[in-house]
Design brief:
The chain is an all-alpha fold. Helix content is 69%, strand content 1%. It contains 20 helices and two strands. The chain has helices spanning 2-26, 36-48, 50-60, 67-70, 82-100, 105-108, 111-128, 133-157, 161-189, 208-227, 233-253, 256-274, 278-294, 296-303, 314-319, 328-346, 357-360, 388-419, 423-442, 452-472, and strands at residues 65-66, 79-80. A two-stranded antiparallel ribbon has the order 1-2. The longest helix has 32 residues, at 388-419.
Length: 489
Protein backbone atom coordinates (compact mmCIF):
# COMPACT_ATOMS: atom_id res chain seq x y z
CA UNK A 1 0.00 0.00 0.00
CA UNK A 2 2.86 2.39 0.84
CA UNK A 3 4.48 1.77 -2.54
CA UNK A 4 1.16 2.30 -4.31
CA UNK A 5 0.59 5.59 -2.43
CA UNK A 6 4.02 6.86 -3.49
CA UNK A 7 3.26 6.03 -7.13
CA UNK A 8 -0.09 7.83 -6.95
CA UNK A 9 1.53 10.86 -5.29
CA UNK A 10 4.21 10.91 -8.01
CA UNK A 11 1.59 11.02 -10.78
CA UNK A 12 -0.45 13.72 -8.99
CA UNK A 13 2.60 15.97 -8.54
CA UNK A 14 3.69 15.35 -12.16
CA UNK A 15 0.21 16.22 -13.47
CA UNK A 16 0.09 19.42 -11.42
CA UNK A 17 3.54 20.40 -12.67
CA UNK A 18 2.50 19.84 -16.32
CA UNK A 19 -0.73 21.84 -15.84
CA UNK A 20 1.19 24.71 -14.24
CA UNK A 21 3.62 24.76 -17.16
CA UNK A 22 0.80 24.75 -19.70
CA UNK A 23 -0.97 27.61 -17.89
CA UNK A 24 2.12 29.82 -17.58
CA UNK A 25 3.30 29.12 -21.14
CA UNK A 26 -0.09 29.80 -22.75
CA UNK A 27 -1.51 32.50 -20.46
CA UNK A 28 1.62 34.26 -19.18
CA UNK A 29 4.03 33.36 -22.00
CA UNK A 30 6.80 32.48 -19.56
CA UNK A 31 8.81 29.34 -18.76
CA UNK A 32 9.50 30.35 -15.16
CA UNK A 33 7.73 27.29 -13.70
CA UNK A 34 10.29 25.10 -15.46
CA UNK A 35 12.88 26.01 -12.85
CA UNK A 36 10.74 24.71 -9.94
CA UNK A 37 12.32 21.21 -9.97
CA UNK A 38 15.78 22.81 -9.80
CA UNK A 39 14.70 25.03 -6.90
CA UNK A 40 13.17 22.04 -5.11
CA UNK A 41 16.36 20.01 -5.65
CA UNK A 42 18.47 22.77 -4.05
CA UNK A 43 16.05 23.03 -1.11
CA UNK A 44 16.29 19.29 -0.45
CA UNK A 45 20.09 19.36 -0.73
CA UNK A 46 20.23 22.32 1.67
CA UNK A 47 18.12 20.48 4.25
CA UNK A 48 19.81 17.09 4.07
CA UNK A 49 23.30 17.69 2.61
CA UNK A 50 24.50 21.21 3.35
CA UNK A 51 28.09 20.38 2.41
CA UNK A 52 26.99 19.42 -1.10
CA UNK A 53 25.10 22.69 -1.45
CA UNK A 54 28.11 24.77 -0.35
CA UNK A 55 30.37 22.97 -2.82
CA UNK A 56 27.76 23.49 -5.55
CA UNK A 57 27.85 27.22 -4.81
CA UNK A 58 31.67 27.15 -5.13
CA UNK A 59 31.31 25.69 -8.64
CA UNK A 60 28.60 28.16 -9.65
CA UNK A 61 30.49 31.22 -8.38
CA UNK A 62 32.76 31.82 -11.42
CA UNK A 63 29.74 31.24 -13.68
CA UNK A 64 27.28 33.45 -11.82
CA UNK A 65 25.73 36.39 -13.65
CA UNK A 66 24.59 39.83 -12.39
CA UNK A 67 20.81 40.12 -12.33
CA UNK A 68 21.05 43.36 -14.32
CA UNK A 69 22.54 41.43 -17.23
CA UNK A 70 19.17 39.70 -17.55
CA UNK A 71 16.95 42.60 -16.45
CA UNK A 72 18.77 45.93 -17.08
CA UNK A 73 15.78 48.00 -15.95
CA UNK A 74 16.01 46.80 -12.32
CA UNK A 75 17.14 49.27 -9.66
CA UNK A 76 18.96 46.61 -7.61
CA UNK A 77 21.44 43.87 -8.45
CA UNK A 78 22.61 40.48 -7.21
CA UNK A 79 24.54 37.50 -8.59
CA UNK A 80 22.52 34.56 -9.91
CA UNK A 81 22.22 31.81 -8.87
CA UNK A 82 24.76 32.10 -6.04
CA UNK A 83 23.34 34.91 -3.88
CA UNK A 84 19.76 33.55 -3.69
CA UNK A 85 21.28 30.20 -2.67
CA UNK A 86 23.44 31.95 -0.05
CA UNK A 87 20.36 33.73 1.32
CA UNK A 88 18.76 30.30 1.70
CA UNK A 89 21.87 28.97 3.44
CA UNK A 90 21.83 31.92 5.87
CA UNK A 91 18.14 31.42 6.72
CA UNK A 92 18.56 27.68 7.20
CA UNK A 93 21.68 28.29 9.28
CA UNK A 94 19.81 30.69 11.60
CA UNK A 95 16.88 28.27 11.87
CA UNK A 96 19.16 25.38 12.80
CA UNK A 97 20.94 27.54 15.39
CA UNK A 98 17.65 28.31 17.15
CA UNK A 99 16.43 24.73 16.79
CA UNK A 100 19.57 23.25 18.34
CA UNK A 101 20.40 26.15 20.69
CA UNK A 102 23.97 26.96 19.90
CA UNK A 103 27.10 26.90 17.86
CA UNK A 104 30.60 25.68 18.63
CA UNK A 105 31.95 28.23 21.13
CA UNK A 106 35.58 27.59 20.17
CA UNK A 107 34.84 28.97 16.70
CA UNK A 108 32.86 31.94 18.04
CA UNK A 109 35.72 32.94 20.38
CA UNK A 110 38.64 32.32 18.02
CA UNK A 111 40.83 35.48 17.67
CA UNK A 112 39.99 35.79 13.96
CA UNK A 113 36.27 35.53 14.75
CA UNK A 114 36.53 38.13 17.54
CA UNK A 115 38.06 40.67 15.15
CA UNK A 116 35.43 39.63 12.60
CA UNK A 117 32.70 40.54 15.12
CA UNK A 118 34.24 44.00 15.39
CA UNK A 119 34.38 44.34 11.58
CA UNK A 120 30.79 43.21 10.99
CA UNK A 121 29.42 44.83 14.15
CA UNK A 122 30.76 48.28 13.33
CA UNK A 123 29.51 47.89 9.76
CA UNK A 124 26.03 47.17 11.17
CA UNK A 125 26.16 50.28 13.39
CA UNK A 126 27.15 52.46 10.44
CA UNK A 127 24.41 50.85 8.36
CA UNK A 128 21.90 52.12 10.93
CA UNK A 129 23.39 55.65 10.76
CA UNK A 130 23.74 55.51 6.97
CA UNK A 131 22.65 58.25 4.60
CA UNK A 132 20.99 55.43 2.60
CA UNK A 133 19.83 52.86 5.21
CA UNK A 134 18.19 50.45 2.75
CA UNK A 135 21.32 50.24 0.61
CA UNK A 136 23.55 49.79 3.67
CA UNK A 137 21.42 47.11 5.32
CA UNK A 138 21.33 45.14 2.07
CA UNK A 139 25.12 45.52 1.79
CA UNK A 140 25.56 44.35 5.39
CA UNK A 141 23.26 41.37 4.83
CA UNK A 142 25.28 40.33 1.77
CA UNK A 143 28.37 40.25 4.00
CA UNK A 144 26.58 38.07 6.56
CA UNK A 145 25.47 35.42 4.08
CA UNK A 146 28.98 35.12 2.66
CA UNK A 147 30.37 34.78 6.20
CA UNK A 148 27.69 32.35 7.38
CA UNK A 149 28.23 30.03 4.42
CA UNK A 150 31.97 30.10 3.89
CA UNK A 151 33.46 31.15 7.21
CA UNK A 152 31.26 29.81 10.00
CA UNK A 153 30.04 26.76 8.09
CA UNK A 154 33.28 26.71 6.10
CA UNK A 155 35.28 25.89 9.24
CA UNK A 156 33.35 22.61 9.46
CA UNK A 157 33.17 22.01 5.72
CA UNK A 158 36.95 22.22 5.31
CA UNK A 159 37.63 20.11 8.39
CA UNK A 160 37.62 17.28 5.85
CA UNK A 161 40.75 17.88 3.74
CA UNK A 162 39.01 16.31 0.74
CA UNK A 163 36.60 19.24 0.70
CA UNK A 164 39.54 21.65 0.44
CA UNK A 165 40.65 19.93 -2.75
CA UNK A 166 37.04 19.79 -3.96
CA UNK A 167 36.79 23.54 -3.37
CA UNK A 168 39.96 24.07 -5.45
CA UNK A 169 38.84 21.70 -8.22
CA UNK A 170 35.30 23.08 -8.46
CA UNK A 171 36.23 26.77 -8.53
CA UNK A 172 39.15 26.27 -10.93
CA UNK A 173 37.12 23.88 -13.10
CA UNK A 174 34.36 26.46 -13.54
CA UNK A 175 37.00 29.17 -13.98
CA UNK A 176 38.43 27.24 -16.95
CA UNK A 177 35.06 27.64 -18.68
CA UNK A 178 35.27 31.42 -18.16
CA UNK A 179 38.87 31.49 -19.41
CA UNK A 180 37.88 29.57 -22.56
CA UNK A 181 34.99 32.00 -23.13
CA UNK A 182 37.30 35.01 -22.63
CA UNK A 183 39.99 33.61 -24.95
CA UNK A 184 37.51 32.91 -27.74
CA UNK A 185 36.32 36.52 -27.59
CA UNK A 186 39.88 37.81 -27.19
CA UNK A 187 41.04 35.86 -30.24
CA UNK A 188 38.19 37.25 -32.34
CA UNK A 189 38.98 40.83 -31.29
CA UNK A 190 42.78 40.52 -31.33
CA UNK A 191 45.16 39.53 -28.54
CA UNK A 192 47.39 42.53 -29.28
CA UNK A 193 44.71 45.00 -28.17
CA UNK A 194 44.88 45.67 -24.41
CA UNK A 195 41.47 47.36 -24.45
CA UNK A 196 39.71 44.13 -25.43
CA UNK A 197 41.32 42.42 -22.41
CA UNK A 198 39.25 44.74 -20.20
CA UNK A 199 35.87 43.23 -21.10
CA UNK A 200 36.23 39.84 -22.84
CA UNK A 201 35.42 38.02 -19.56
CA UNK A 202 32.19 39.99 -19.13
CA UNK A 203 29.48 39.14 -17.99
CA UNK A 204 31.00 36.43 -15.78
CA UNK A 205 33.54 38.87 -14.35
CA UNK A 206 32.85 42.57 -14.46
CA UNK A 207 36.27 43.48 -15.89
CA UNK A 208 39.87 42.37 -16.15
CA UNK A 209 40.76 43.52 -12.63
CA UNK A 210 38.41 41.14 -10.76
CA UNK A 211 39.22 38.41 -13.28
CA UNK A 212 42.97 38.91 -12.79
CA UNK A 213 42.62 39.11 -9.01
CA UNK A 214 41.03 35.66 -8.81
CA UNK A 215 43.55 34.16 -11.24
CA UNK A 216 46.33 35.42 -8.98
CA UNK A 217 44.46 34.12 -5.92
CA UNK A 218 44.36 30.51 -7.14
CA UNK A 219 47.81 30.28 -8.74
CA UNK A 220 49.50 29.64 -5.33
CA UNK A 221 47.12 26.72 -4.69
CA UNK A 222 47.78 25.25 -8.12
CA UNK A 223 51.52 25.63 -7.62
CA UNK A 224 51.26 23.96 -4.21
CA UNK A 225 49.44 20.90 -5.59
CA UNK A 226 51.65 20.72 -8.70
CA UNK A 227 54.93 20.68 -6.78
CA UNK A 228 53.81 18.66 -3.75
CA UNK A 229 55.47 15.27 -4.06
CA UNK A 230 52.89 13.58 -1.86
CA UNK A 231 50.36 13.49 -4.71
CA UNK A 232 50.17 11.01 -7.57
CA UNK A 233 51.77 12.01 -10.86
CA UNK A 234 48.38 12.21 -12.62
CA UNK A 235 47.02 14.74 -10.13
CA UNK A 236 50.19 16.84 -10.32
CA UNK A 237 50.08 16.75 -14.14
CA UNK A 238 46.46 17.93 -14.23
CA UNK A 239 47.18 20.67 -11.68
CA UNK A 240 50.30 21.72 -13.61
CA UNK A 241 48.33 21.94 -16.85
CA UNK A 242 45.67 24.10 -15.20
CA UNK A 243 48.45 26.20 -13.65
CA UNK A 244 49.93 26.94 -17.09
CA UNK A 245 46.49 28.01 -18.36
CA UNK A 246 45.94 30.27 -15.32
CA UNK A 247 49.35 31.92 -15.75
CA UNK A 248 48.68 32.50 -19.44
CA UNK A 249 45.24 33.92 -18.60
CA UNK A 250 46.79 36.21 -15.99
CA UNK A 251 49.29 37.57 -18.53
CA UNK A 252 46.53 38.08 -21.12
CA UNK A 253 44.32 39.81 -18.56
CA UNK A 254 46.73 42.81 -18.68
CA UNK A 255 45.80 43.45 -15.04
CA UNK A 256 48.82 45.22 -13.57
CA UNK A 257 47.39 45.07 -10.05
CA UNK A 258 47.03 41.28 -10.31
CA UNK A 259 50.62 40.92 -11.50
CA UNK A 260 51.84 43.08 -8.63
CA UNK A 261 49.78 41.11 -6.09
CA UNK A 262 51.30 37.81 -7.26
CA UNK A 263 54.81 39.24 -6.85
CA UNK A 264 53.86 40.28 -3.29
CA UNK A 265 52.54 36.78 -2.68
CA UNK A 266 55.90 35.41 -3.79
CA UNK A 267 57.58 37.71 -1.25
CA UNK A 268 55.39 36.29 1.55
CA UNK A 269 56.28 32.74 0.44
CA UNK A 270 59.97 33.66 0.67
CA UNK A 271 59.46 35.12 4.16
CA UNK A 272 57.78 31.90 5.33
CA UNK A 273 60.54 29.76 3.85
CA UNK A 274 63.20 31.88 5.58
CA UNK A 275 61.18 31.62 8.84
CA UNK A 276 61.39 35.35 9.57
CA UNK A 277 59.51 36.41 12.70
CA UNK A 278 56.24 38.35 12.43
CA UNK A 279 57.12 41.20 14.84
CA UNK A 280 60.22 42.52 13.00
CA UNK A 281 58.35 42.19 9.70
CA UNK A 282 55.43 44.18 11.07
CA UNK A 283 57.78 46.87 12.40
CA UNK A 284 59.54 46.99 9.02
CA UNK A 285 56.22 47.38 7.19
CA UNK A 286 55.11 50.20 9.49
CA UNK A 287 58.51 51.90 9.06
CA UNK A 288 58.24 51.71 5.26
CA UNK A 289 54.75 53.23 5.37
CA UNK A 290 56.03 55.99 7.66
CA UNK A 291 58.90 56.76 5.24
CA UNK A 292 56.46 56.90 2.33
CA UNK A 293 54.24 59.30 4.28
CA UNK A 294 57.16 61.59 5.25
CA UNK A 295 58.61 61.70 1.73
CA UNK A 296 55.32 61.59 -0.17
CA UNK A 297 56.00 64.88 -1.98
CA UNK A 298 59.36 63.69 -3.33
CA UNK A 299 57.88 60.34 -4.31
CA UNK A 300 55.04 62.03 -6.20
CA UNK A 301 57.52 64.25 -8.06
CA UNK A 302 59.47 61.16 -9.10
CA UNK A 303 56.34 59.32 -10.25
CA UNK A 304 55.19 62.31 -12.29
CA UNK A 305 58.27 61.89 -14.50
CA UNK A 306 56.87 58.58 -15.80
CA UNK A 307 54.71 59.05 -18.91
CA UNK A 308 54.50 55.42 -20.10
CA UNK A 309 50.99 54.50 -21.24
CA UNK A 310 49.30 51.09 -20.99
CA UNK A 311 50.41 48.93 -23.89
CA UNK A 312 50.30 45.42 -25.36
CA UNK A 313 54.06 45.39 -24.82
CA UNK A 314 54.44 43.73 -21.40
CA UNK A 315 57.52 45.74 -20.43
CA UNK A 316 55.84 49.04 -21.25
CA UNK A 317 52.61 47.91 -19.59
CA UNK A 318 54.46 47.08 -16.36
CA UNK A 319 56.32 50.41 -16.31
CA UNK A 320 52.99 52.24 -16.78
CA UNK A 321 51.97 51.13 -13.26
CA UNK A 322 53.59 54.24 -11.79
CA UNK A 323 52.42 56.69 -14.46
CA UNK A 324 50.26 59.24 -12.62
CA UNK A 325 50.70 61.90 -15.29
CA UNK A 326 48.81 60.65 -18.33
CA UNK A 327 47.57 57.05 -17.72
CA UNK A 328 43.76 57.42 -17.46
CA UNK A 329 43.31 54.26 -15.37
CA UNK A 330 45.85 55.35 -12.76
CA UNK A 331 44.54 58.91 -12.68
CA UNK A 332 40.95 57.78 -12.25
CA UNK A 333 42.00 55.55 -9.37
CA UNK A 334 43.63 58.57 -7.71
CA UNK A 335 40.43 60.52 -8.33
CA UNK A 336 38.34 57.87 -6.56
CA UNK A 337 40.80 57.72 -3.63
CA UNK A 338 40.70 61.50 -3.23
CA UNK A 339 36.89 61.37 -3.24
CA UNK A 340 36.96 58.71 -0.50
CA UNK A 341 39.27 60.85 1.64
CA UNK A 342 37.08 63.96 1.19
CA UNK A 343 34.00 61.91 2.08
CA UNK A 344 35.78 60.71 5.23
CA UNK A 345 36.71 64.28 6.18
CA UNK A 346 33.05 65.29 6.04
CA UNK A 347 31.75 62.27 8.01
CA UNK A 348 34.79 60.85 9.91
CA UNK A 349 32.99 58.86 12.62
CA UNK A 350 30.17 56.87 11.04
CA UNK A 351 30.86 57.52 7.37
CA UNK A 352 28.21 57.69 4.68
CA UNK A 353 27.03 54.12 5.15
CA UNK A 354 28.20 50.71 3.82
CA UNK A 355 27.69 50.38 0.08
CA UNK A 356 26.90 54.05 -0.47
CA UNK A 357 30.18 55.28 -1.98
CA UNK A 358 29.02 54.80 -5.56
CA UNK A 359 25.92 56.92 -4.91
CA UNK A 360 27.61 59.70 -2.94
CA UNK A 361 31.10 60.28 -4.35
CA UNK A 362 30.20 62.35 -7.44
CA UNK A 363 30.01 65.78 -5.69
CA UNK A 364 33.44 65.16 -4.16
CA UNK A 365 35.20 65.00 -7.54
CA UNK A 366 37.29 68.04 -8.27
CA UNK A 367 37.36 69.27 -11.85
CA UNK A 368 41.17 69.11 -11.92
CA UNK A 369 41.07 65.43 -10.85
CA UNK A 370 38.50 64.22 -13.39
CA UNK A 371 39.70 62.09 -16.29
CA UNK A 372 38.37 61.01 -19.66
CA UNK A 373 36.84 57.94 -17.96
CA UNK A 374 35.34 59.75 -14.95
CA UNK A 375 31.61 59.31 -14.34
CA UNK A 376 29.09 60.29 -11.69
CA UNK A 377 27.59 56.79 -11.33
CA UNK A 378 30.59 54.61 -10.37
CA UNK A 379 29.95 52.35 -13.36
CA UNK A 380 33.70 51.66 -13.55
CA UNK A 381 33.98 50.42 -9.96
CA UNK A 382 33.63 52.21 -6.66
CA UNK A 383 36.39 53.42 -4.30
CA UNK A 384 39.00 51.09 -5.87
CA UNK A 385 40.34 50.23 -2.42
CA UNK A 386 39.40 47.73 0.29
CA UNK A 387 40.84 50.23 2.78
CA UNK A 388 39.66 53.65 1.61
CA UNK A 389 36.19 52.32 0.76
CA UNK A 390 35.39 51.45 4.41
CA UNK A 391 37.05 54.72 5.47
CA UNK A 392 34.48 56.69 3.45
CA UNK A 393 31.53 54.41 4.16
CA UNK A 394 32.10 53.45 7.83
CA UNK A 395 34.52 56.07 9.11
CA UNK A 396 37.93 55.59 10.70
CA UNK A 397 36.88 52.49 12.66
CA UNK A 398 35.62 50.93 9.43
CA UNK A 399 39.08 51.03 7.90
CA UNK A 400 40.78 50.04 11.17
CA UNK A 401 38.49 47.00 11.56
CA UNK A 402 39.43 45.68 8.11
CA UNK A 403 43.12 46.33 8.72
CA UNK A 404 42.98 44.49 12.07
CA UNK A 405 41.12 41.61 10.45
CA UNK A 406 43.72 41.34 7.68
CA UNK A 407 46.60 41.40 10.18
CA UNK A 408 44.96 38.78 12.43
CA UNK A 409 44.31 36.44 9.49
CA UNK A 410 47.93 36.61 8.31
CA UNK A 411 49.29 36.44 11.88
CA UNK A 412 47.23 33.29 12.58
CA UNK A 413 48.11 31.74 9.23
CA UNK A 414 51.86 32.20 9.65
CA UNK A 415 51.75 30.71 13.17
CA UNK A 416 49.76 27.72 11.88
CA UNK A 417 52.34 27.20 9.13
CA UNK A 418 55.15 27.35 11.69
CA UNK A 419 53.48 24.84 14.05
CA UNK A 420 52.40 22.37 11.37
CA UNK A 421 54.45 19.19 11.16
CA UNK A 422 52.79 17.55 8.16
CA UNK A 423 54.07 18.74 4.78
CA UNK A 424 50.61 18.56 3.23
CA UNK A 425 49.18 20.91 5.87
CA UNK A 426 52.08 23.31 5.36
CA UNK A 427 51.35 23.28 1.63
CA UNK A 428 47.61 23.97 2.11
CA UNK A 429 48.10 26.69 4.72
CA UNK A 430 50.90 28.45 2.81
CA UNK A 431 48.75 28.42 -0.35
CA UNK A 432 45.86 29.95 1.60
CA UNK A 433 48.12 32.62 3.13
CA UNK A 434 49.66 33.57 -0.22
CA UNK A 435 46.26 33.59 -1.93
CA UNK A 436 44.86 35.92 0.76
CA UNK A 437 48.01 38.07 0.48
CA UNK A 438 47.50 38.51 -3.26
CA UNK A 439 43.99 39.73 -2.57
CA UNK A 440 44.96 42.07 0.28
CA UNK A 441 47.70 43.64 -1.88
CA UNK A 442 45.25 43.89 -4.76
CA UNK A 443 42.87 45.51 -2.24
CA UNK A 444 45.04 48.64 -2.21
CA UNK A 445 44.01 49.20 -5.84
CA UNK A 446 40.59 47.56 -6.17
CA UNK A 447 37.83 46.10 -4.01
CA UNK A 448 35.72 43.00 -4.73
CA UNK A 449 34.70 41.56 -1.34
CA UNK A 450 31.15 42.71 -2.01
CA UNK A 451 30.96 40.15 -4.85
CA UNK A 452 30.64 36.37 -4.74
CA UNK A 453 33.65 35.99 -7.07
CA UNK A 454 36.08 37.16 -4.37
CA UNK A 455 34.15 36.54 -1.14
CA UNK A 456 33.65 32.79 -1.62
CA UNK A 457 37.39 31.98 -2.05
CA UNK A 458 38.57 34.64 0.42
CA UNK A 459 36.40 33.54 3.36
CA UNK A 460 36.97 29.89 2.45
CA UNK A 461 40.72 30.39 2.85
CA UNK A 462 40.20 32.19 6.16
CA UNK A 463 38.12 29.22 7.36
CA UNK A 464 40.88 26.83 6.20
CA UNK A 465 43.47 28.74 8.26
CA UNK A 466 41.20 28.70 11.34
CA UNK A 467 40.43 24.98 11.16
CA UNK A 468 44.14 24.14 10.88
CA UNK A 469 44.83 26.51 13.76
CA UNK A 470 42.62 24.28 15.90
CA UNK A 471 44.18 21.14 14.43
CA UNK A 472 47.81 22.15 15.03
CA UNK A 473 46.95 23.11 18.62
CA UNK A 474 45.33 19.72 19.22
CA UNK A 475 41.88 21.28 19.74
CA UNK A 476 38.90 19.31 18.49
CA UNK A 477 35.65 20.98 17.49
CA UNK A 478 32.19 19.45 17.39
CA UNK A 479 29.61 19.54 14.65
CA UNK A 480 28.29 23.07 14.00
CA UNK A 481 24.89 21.92 15.19
CA UNK A 482 24.29 19.23 17.80
CA UNK A 483 25.44 15.70 17.04
CA UNK A 484 21.81 14.67 16.61
CA UNK A 485 21.89 16.14 13.10
CA UNK A 486 25.03 14.76 11.49
CA UNK A 487 23.73 15.52 8.00
CA UNK A 488 23.70 19.30 8.51
CA UNK A 489 27.31 19.25 7.32
Amino acid sequence: MAKRSKIILFYIVSALFILLNVYFVIEKETLVVGILPIVLAFVLVAIFKMDKLLLSIVFLTPLSLPLRELFPELSFDMYLPTEPLLVGVLLLFIFKLFENKGFEKKVLTHPVTIVLWFYVGWMFITALTSTMPVVSIKYWLSKTWFLAAFYFLGVFLYRDKKNIYRFLALYCGAFLIVIAYAWVRHFALGFHNTQTAHFVMNPFYKDHTSYGAMLAFFIPFLMGVTFFKGFKGKIRFISGSVLVIFIAALVLSFSRAAWLSLVAGGGVWLIMKLKLRFRPLFITAVSVLAIIFVFQTQILMLLEQNDQESSANLGTHISSMTNITSDASNLERLNRWNCAIRMFEERPIFGWGPGTYMFKYAPFQLTKNRTIISTNSADRGNAHSEYLGPLAESGLLGMISFLLLSIMILYTGIHVYTRAKEKEIKMIVSSAIIGITTYLVHGFLNNFLDTDKASVPFWSCVAIIVIFDFYTKGISIAQPISSQNQDFL
